[in-house]
Write a structure and sequence with these properties.
The complex is a heterodimer of chains A (343) and B (302). Chain A is mainly alpha-helical. Chain A has one domain. A two-stranded antiparallel sheet of chain A has the order 1-2. In chain A, helix 3 runs antiparallel to helix 11, helix 4 packs antiparallel against helix 5 and helix 12 crosses helix 13. Chain A is globular and about 55 Å long. Chain A starts with a helix and ends in an 11-residue tail after the last helix. Chain B is globular. In chain B, the strands form 2 sheets. In chain B, strands 1-4 form a two-stranded antiparallel sheet. In chain B, strands 2-3 form a two-stranded antiparallel ribbon. Chain B has a single domain, classed as ABC transporter involved in vitamin B12 uptake, BtuC (Orthogonal Bundle), CATH 1.10.3470. Classes of the chains: A mainly alpha (343), B mainly alpha (302).
Chain lengths: 343, 302
């Protein structure tokens, strides 16, 4: 393969990476202020949420309405891990490790949050063997309520008052070196999440996910192990969402169970259906667009939550398949195919 | 023993609200296979309509509370069913005409619910409304067990509505048309049955009883707020599914079951555990019987 060709094929990836580096540099040299930085970080987190939900709702064709449950599990587990290890707290007292190691512990704690959220995903995956459609939707709603209610009853982590202390961990990272750590981690997490989902869906194994969406029985006849594919997909989706939750908790510095209620799940669903079911690039675009819209309409306060649903109702009337439909960017602009590695 | 009976009565009252709302879910689902997620918010709108009607009749006209109640019940039901039918006309029918995927209708319903909730909040502000007392509370005592007349009315209303709907769906011509649409919505128009009329009738029934539930709820727990419909609506929906969505008996049994579970949990454990236990039990029921208690499994054709 020629070098020029290789460069061309990697152009898209390079563009994404250089875009991230540019944003991080802008943040480093204080060109963009803290508010815009936080909006960009929320965009990254929302991309993770919407792409991971898209894997279940779009690619697999299930109807999961309780995605915020996994966000909640990830946020709590990763913040508890990082705070217990790195910061003085009420439960274990003094920190175990010196604050210099925060940079190492933080990604590990986010990862731990993702793993535990993936385990929580089994709660939804197991009933999905027997049932799907509306009944599975209820199970996901029930899981969302159970998780919130369960955490509200755990007074060790603050119960309904919420849990804090993550700011200390983040602060010790900034003391180590004054670079925009959170921005870097959010960018890494987002790229990791999108890449994993892309690789998973386009792999031979992941073709089973789309097969289940088309026709579950036919997929089973075609020797797709539907139960295993469902289990893996649900766990992957909830795990990635849990990582998003870990990042969210550390960006905000405070979590409380009610911020992961059914409204948050609805937000995630809005992002998926706005982008188009089963379209990864659609999920990314709609997450960016939706976050931007939320911030743009912030001065309208509560009216924002009238306008956004209304827009979506109109969207459903006139373009129900969402921004991208079932297509990827490469299907809409075939020339792009020259610039990216797979497909 | 007295405590047990007292709790059973409380559970019956609490379950009545769930049952009344779940009946609306199940009616619409039974006909259209549509989860009308806005139904909980229609219940909320019903409570607010009842509030404004009562305030208007008591304050501006100066009617007697008894007459006010007698007028408020039918008026609330009519106006609330108007809201439900409007929703169907504006949001769901165009989508149905286009033959859109079921999921898009569900999303539309969800969004309509949000519009109702937040539109209410934006219009009326965040202050809670206090519902005036319409019925003089009479407490009947049997030993240590006390029952208010309102509780009896609520429970009776739920039972009457159940029998009425069961009669309408299984014994009348329009009920037969409703069951027919859910069985095969392509063949039914060929039989000369006006599908749209039947669907509007379904929405009138469902929303009307949601309005009744709103009025009764506002009388029992006289504080109104825009988000009151969201939580109770989701829970009633879960109750409908546990009973077997699409079946009138299922919604009724599911509603009371959820009421009994919630009151039972509160009686034994701290009240904050209510949602955790209630939903865990429901999850187990659905796990063991995925189509709900009365639901029939739909066999997928290859």
């Amino acid at each position: 393969m020629e070098t020029g060709n290789k460069l061309q094929r990697n152009a898209f990836a390079l563009a994404v990476i250089s875009g991230c580096v540019l944003i991080i540099l802008l943040a480093q040299f204080k060109v963009i202020n803290l508010y815009i930085q936080s909006v960009i970080m929320f965009m990254g987190i929302n991309i993770m949420i919407s792409t991971s939900l898209n894997l279940v709702n779009g690619n697999m064709g299930e109807f999961s309405c309780g995605h915020a449950a996994f966000l909640c599990v990830g946020a709590y587990v990763s913040s508890i891990t990082s705070v217990l290890i790195m910061a003085p707290n009420d439960i274990t007292g003094a920190p175990f490790l010196p604050p210099e190691l925060a940079v190492l512990v933080f990604p590990i704690s986010v990862f731990v949050g993702g793993v535990v959220a993936a385990l929580a995903g089994i709660l939804v995956a197991l009933p999905s063997f027997k049932t799907r459609g509306d009944y599975l939707a209820i199970i996901t709603i029930a899981v969302n309520y159970m998780v919130i209610s369960g955490i509200e009853n755990l007074s060790v982590v603050g119960g309904p008052r919420g849990f804090m202390g993550m700011k200390k961990v983040v602060k010790s990272m900034y003391e180590l070196a004054d670079i925009p750590w959170m921005m870097i981690f959010v960018a890494l997490g987002t790229i990791f999440c999108v890449l994993i989902i892309r690789r998973y869906v386009s792999s031979t194994y992941g073709k089973g996910v789309n097969a289940i969406c088309q026709d579950e029985i036919a997929a089973e006849i075609m020797s797709v192990n539907t139960n295993k594919v469902k289990l893996v997909t649900f766990m992957l989706s909830s795990g990635l969402c849990g990582m998003a939750g870990g990042l969210f908790a550390h960006v905000v510095g405070y979590v409380n169970p009610q911020s992961f209620n059914i409204l948050k799940s609805t937000e995630a669903m809005v992002m998926v259906y706005l982008g188009g079911m089963g379209s990864l690039s659609g999920a990314v675009i709609s997450a960016v667009f939706f976050t931007f819209l939320l911030e743009l309409l912030r001065p309208l306060q509560i009216l924002k939550w009238v306008i956004i649903p209304f827009t979506l109702v109109l969207l459903m009337q006139f373009r129900p398949e969402g921004i991208m439909g079932n297509k990827e960017l490469t299907d809409v602009f075939p020339k792009l195919r020259k610039y990216c590695r797979f497909k | 023993m007295e405590v047990l009976i007292q709790n059973i009565i409380n559970a019956l009252q609490w379950g009545s609200f769930y049952a009344l709302i779940a009946l609306g879910y199940t009616l619409v689902y039974g006909v259209l296979l549509l989860i009308n997620f806005a139904h909980g918010d229609i219940f909320m709108v019903g409570a607010y309509i009842a509030f404004f009607l009562v305030i208007f009749m008591l304050g501006n006209i100066g009617l007697d509370p008894g007459i006010t109640l007698a007028l408020a019940v039918p008026l609330t039901m009519i106006l609330t069913s108007g809201v439900g039918v409007t929703l169907e006309r504006i949001a769901y029918r165009p989508l149905r005409r286009k033959g859109a995927h079921r999921l898009y209708v569900v999303i539309t319903a969800l969004m309509c619910g949000l519009i109702l909730e937040n539109g209410n909040l934006a219009l009326l502000g965040a202050s809670r409304k206090r519902f005036p007392e319409l019925l003089e509370t009479t407490v009947y005592r049997f030993g240590d067990v006390s029952v208010t007349n309102l509780k009896i009315i609520v429970i009776l209303a739920a039972i009457l509505v159940f029998f009425f709907l069961q009669f309408v769906v299984t014994r009348t011509k329009i009920g037969m048309a409703m069951r027919g649409i859910s069985y095969d919505k392509f063949a039914i128009p060929l039989m000369g049955i006006p599908v749209d009329t039947v669907i509007v009738f379904t929405f009138i029934l469902g929303s009307g009883f949601a309005g009744l539930a709103g009025l009764l709820f506002a009388m029992s727990y006289p504080v109104l707020e825009p988000y009151m419909g969201a939580l109770i609506g989701w829970k009633a929906f879960i109750a409908a599914v546990v009973g077997g969505i699409g079946d009138i008996r299922g919604a009724f049994v599911g509603g009371f079951l959820l009421g009994f579970i919630e009151i039972g949990v509160v009686a034994i454990f701290p009240s904050t555990m209510r949602d955790l236990f209630a939903f865990s039990i429901l999850l187990l029921i659905l796990w063991a019987k995925p189509t709900g208690l009365f639901g029939l499994a739909r066999h997928q054709k290859i």
